[in-house]
Amino acid sequence: MQILVALGDCAVFGGIMTMRNFFNMEEALKRAYIETESTVDGIIPNSEELAKPIRTVPVGQVVKVDIHLPGCLLPPMPFTMF
Prior knowledge:
Oligomer: single chain
Order of helices and strands: EHHE
Shape: elongated
Radius of gyration: 18 Å
Number of strands: 2
Structural class: alpha+beta
Strand content: 5-15%
Largest sheet: 2 strands, parallel
Helix content: 10-25%
């Protein structure tokens, strides 16, 4: 028998990464690489090595999760009970 456990807030709820879902990606990249107060002659990188940000969702929206264990910076714990 296999059980899938969503471990931590990022897996259970999507985490802080889901905040980017609320912004237009071009605007976010422009702000990050061109408009920041510390940027000098900024450009938006154009590289195959630079991953294109995609919409972030909790793991439960992609596959069936059997157990959800929310929390951030969960303490180490044994999983032998599963």
